[in-house]
Amino acid sequence: MQSFLKELVEKHRPFTREGKLADYIPQLAKQNPSALGVSVRTCEGGVYSAGDCPIEFTLQSISKVITLILALMDRGEEEVFDHVGMEPTGNPFNSIYDLEVNSPGKPLNPMINAGALVVSSLIEGSTVEERLERILTLVRDMAENPDIGVDEAVYHSERVTGYRNRSMAYFLKEFGIVDDVESTLELYFKHCSISVTCDDLARMGLCLARYGEDEKGRQVVPRPIARLVKTFMVTCGMYNASGEFAIKVGIPAKSGVSGGILASVPERMGIGVFGPALDEKGNSHAGVRLLKDLSREWNLSIF
Ligand code: DON
């Protein structure tokens, strides 16, 4: 297994040259474009990794899975889905179009930026710090790593350049869907900047693969919520490439513009991938290819 992962990284590293770093968040443009790494943790206790696994990167949109879990734990399904829909979109993750034209005031799903802003606004706590701490606690529990924190440089970089997210948050306020715009944006930028490694992602994926149970047997995420978020990962996790990813890879997964992918194969394994050179839809270019080969070789498709 270990040597196969090594081969995969070697085979796919050249494809990193075809991708592009996210530069609309200036700090992300400082990442190494040729980095590529993969970590796997299986339900049987197997731990495997290859490539640039020690590198830390920020969760970005992968944090949308975590905030959805927490909002569902805090508010329940009915209240959350009063505010945000369940349908995939054919438009990019940061599109304002759907919000205005197709679903005024109710973002299509929690995995696109508009939907994630609404979800962030639903997380309980009296201050941004308290709410962030609750998100961090869940990430640390799922990853079984108490040292996980926020990358302040990435946070500040997005805070001063996040014009489109700011616009969407104000648009949502007009419809009464988001109340306190500034604290919602603050929390959103912070949870996007939570810093992890491939192995942290593999453990988080494993927790979801075990229906919310960590390796010590603690139920960190309620079982029905673990099932629900994996369904969103299949239908919306790779944005407007989710259909193609489901066909070619067939694993619940969530990407982020820093180049991370969190993948979870139910009852089998968690996988963390990092490759910051992105394709035109904002997913790790080499990372998606690597997962495709991994899925084919190990027969991981859930379909
Ligand atoms: O809001 C943003 O644009 C970023 N903080 C996160 C976007 C993202 O990760 C999209 N993923 N592919």
From TrEMBL:
MF GO annotations: glutaminase activity
Keywords: Acetylation, Hydrolase
Protein residues bound to substrate: 61, 113, 158, 165, 188, 239, 257
One Pfam family recorded for the sequence: Glutaminase
Catalytic reaction(s) noted: L-glutamine + H2O = L-glutamate + NH4(+)
Keyword rRNA-binding: no
GO biological process: glutamate biosynthetic process; L-glutamine catabolic process
EC numbers on record: 3.5.1.2
SUPFAM superfamilies hit by this protein: beta-lactamase/transpeptidase-like
Principal EC category: hydrolase
Oligomeric form and interacting partners: Homotetramer.
HAMAP family, per database record: Glutaminase (MF_00313)
Similarity comment: Belongs to the glutaminase family.
Name by which UniProt lists this protein: Glutaminase
Organism: Melghirimyces profundicolus
